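2024-03-11 09:14:02 DEBUG pipeline.ingest accepted 1 chain
2024-03-11 09:14:02 DEBUG pipeline.ingest length=368
2024-03-11 09:14:03 DEBUG pipeline.predict start
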Amino acid sequence: MTDASPDLLYSDTEDDLRAAVRSLLTDRADVPAALIRAEAGDPYDAELWTSLAAGIGASGLLVPEKLGGQGAGHREAAVVLEELGRAVTAAPYLTSSVVATETLLACDGESTESTDVAGLLTALAHGHRVAVLAVPLSTAPDGPLPAGAGTVTGVADAVRADVLLVVRHDGLYAVETASPGVTVEPLTPLDLTRPLAAVTVDPAAGIRIAEAPAAQAAVRRGLLAGAGLLASEQLGIAEWCLEETVRHTRERKQFNRPIGSFQALKHRMAQLWLEVVSARAAARNAADALATGSPEAPLAVALAQAYCGRVAVHAAEECVQLHGGIGMTWEHPAHLYLKRGKSDEMAFGSRGRHQETLAALVDLPGPR
């Protein structure tokens, strides 16, 4: 009889991966740089993505070794997303290396061995290409999917994609963004570090890579993985905001005392610390459930999303407020974390939607 208890701790391998990713982001994607790129209207750094995807091999963590990937799992991908959240990095990791990759891997057995799917997975694993599932970022794992006709709005990272995975009534199609009949129109997002776009695809464009029944299941598996690992990004946001707030309140003085020594602020930061610790447990539980293929993965994901999104937003709000006037300025990066937190809170289903899912799975009353 195996122990079904989730492993919430980080392994040595995961700690090493975290150190490598954090070192790269510190050198190449610090928060001031993210602010500059956001102001310029082009948040992506192609060289950074090459270093992260190909240099470290992060983009192939979920891809089997036989297809050129690392053959790792969701726990390792979660560590990468924690670090990307801490640095509010504009990179198509969640959308391409998690959601699109998981969707492709979830195609039926014959399809995953086909030249089209295997070749695309290999290209994604090596960081040579970026694929995005053409559904709104707000789509919940158990929510309605677009039929593939007309324009799909709110598609995250579509402006960076080389390939779109398009859901149609008869299956899942891989469509080159450079193909005739494909239009990707950038939108103005709340979070400038995760661009959104309206995508229009000609009904005749693309290659079918999965039949209708398998396609629906594959897309939902991809969205489930995205929602589960999004909690790790939200954890990274909350951790940075807490650490930055503690640092500031230690250094900022009022009445010749650090403002962090005032009891009211101590209580607020202590409460926030408790929330972050709980969010870490929920995020790690979701990542572990996905990694082990646990039948309770939908429950773990719903729990993580029902909790972690609120914590990330609360941590960012406290970061802004406890920095006083400094936190209200454009030059201070706190607003980037608040916007990413709010955007993430609405991604892959709202908190209320996940609360309803959680209540249904454990047979409890819905959210109040």
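2024-03-11 09:14:41 DEBUG pipeline.report Residues 167 and 280 are 33 Å apart (CA to CA).
2024-03-11 09:14:41 DEBUG pipeline.predict end
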